[in-house]
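Whiteboard transcription, Tuesday session. T.W. wrote the structure tokens on the left side:
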């Protein structure tokens, strides 16, 4: 007879112990599985950030998980990429294999991807479409797997900035100028900043990420006594940097003190010239007015009869009488020519009655 059959309390206790043991085994198995899976999730949740420039290369390198126990060997590396939420295997690498095993996208990647070893590969001649999330899965013995994610961003090469100046003016001792930096286009991934040489540090301005104003301008007031200085426009993003430098000494010139003094006196000289021109114009106007009045009717030669010559005291009336006699002689000559008056000769005077002849 079974010894336990006679004690119902002992049978219930045995059943309870068996149920507890089963639950413990299930929980232990679940904990081990979640631990292995949790390692992969942890790696996938912290992607490695990779940045590359269009046309350049980028390196993918996987480091062995330090939590792996001794004796666990790497069996296979699987490289893949995400398209949205979908993961696609691209290639697999196994120990001892000379070439990778291509699974998908062979036409897109085969000529540009080079496997250096089990844990490292390079992608060459990057294109903008290569930007995205990539995952590498390490498969070890004893069924262990770990994931490592890489977030790749491919940038366009930056254009070369162009520098110029506007609003240039020279004042006594100072050069005032506005420097501008132009870029062919504006992008979200680039910044613009200034670097100076021989200028106060306050002139250095950094740009924040995001599209910068185009052109980027900076107004300067520089002492002409300042040694040769330069200003550099720096255009940069995560993977590239382009610069352009402007020599301010070539813009402002190296004027000596005498040239600066001449430049400062230029406004005064201009004012003097303007005043002289005004005086000359006023004098010319008065002279023309007097000449016009002297030529008006009634103010001709006759008007001179009322004045005296201040030097010799000779009356202009005498000059007027002489001019009148001369006019009468001219009238007589004209009358004779027209036949109004007879022509008088010496012979006619002699023959005229009542005129005595004179013997010589």
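and on the right, the sequence the group agreed on:
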């Amino acid at each position: 007879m079974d010894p336990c059959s006679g004690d119902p309390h002992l049978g219930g206790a045995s059943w309870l112990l068996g149920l507890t043991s089963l639950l413990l085994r299930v929980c232990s198995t679940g904990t081990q599985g979640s631990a292995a899976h949790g390692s992969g999730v942890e790696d996938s949740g912290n992607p490695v950030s990779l940045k590359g420039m269009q046309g350049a290369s980028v390196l993918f390198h996987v480091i062995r998980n330090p939590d792996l126990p001794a004796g666990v060997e790497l069996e296979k590396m699987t490289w893949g990429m995400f398209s949205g939420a979908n993961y696609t295997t691209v290639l697999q690498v196994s120990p001892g294999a000379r070439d990778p095993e291509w699974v998908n996208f062979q036409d897109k990647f085969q000529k540009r991807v080079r496997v250096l070893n089990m844990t490292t590969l390079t992608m060459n001649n990057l294109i903008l479409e290569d930007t995205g999330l990539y995952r590498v899965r390490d498969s070890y013995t004893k069924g262990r797997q770990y994931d490592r994610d890489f977030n790749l961003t491919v940038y366009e090469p930056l254009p070369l900035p162009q520098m110029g100046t506007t609003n240039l003016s020279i004042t006594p001792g100072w050069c005032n100028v506005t420097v501008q930096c132009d870029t062919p286009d504006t992008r979200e991934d680039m910044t613009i900043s200034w670097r100076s040489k021989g200028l106060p540090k306050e002139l250095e301005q950094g740009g924040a990420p995001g599209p910068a104003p185009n052109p980027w301008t900076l107004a300067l007031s520089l002492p002409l006594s300042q040694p040769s200085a330069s200003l550099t426009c720096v255009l940069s993003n995560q993977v590239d940097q382009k610069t352009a430098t402007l020599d301010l000494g070539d813009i402002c010139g190296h004027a000596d003190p005498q040239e600066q003094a001449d430049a400062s006196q230029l406004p005064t000289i201009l004012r003097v010239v303007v005043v002289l021109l005004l005086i000359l114009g006023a004098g010319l106007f008065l002279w023309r007015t007097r000449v016009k009045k002297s030529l008006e009717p009634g103010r001709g030669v006759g008007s001179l009869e009322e004045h005296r010559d201040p030097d010799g005291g000779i009356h202009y009336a005498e000059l007027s009488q002489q001019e009148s006699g001369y006019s009468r002689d001219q009238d007589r000559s004209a009358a004779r020519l027209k036949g109004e008056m007879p022509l008088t000769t010496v012979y006619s005077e002699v023959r005229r009655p009542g005129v005595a002849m004179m013997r010589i």
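Someone added at the bottom: The chain has a mean pLDDT of 74.
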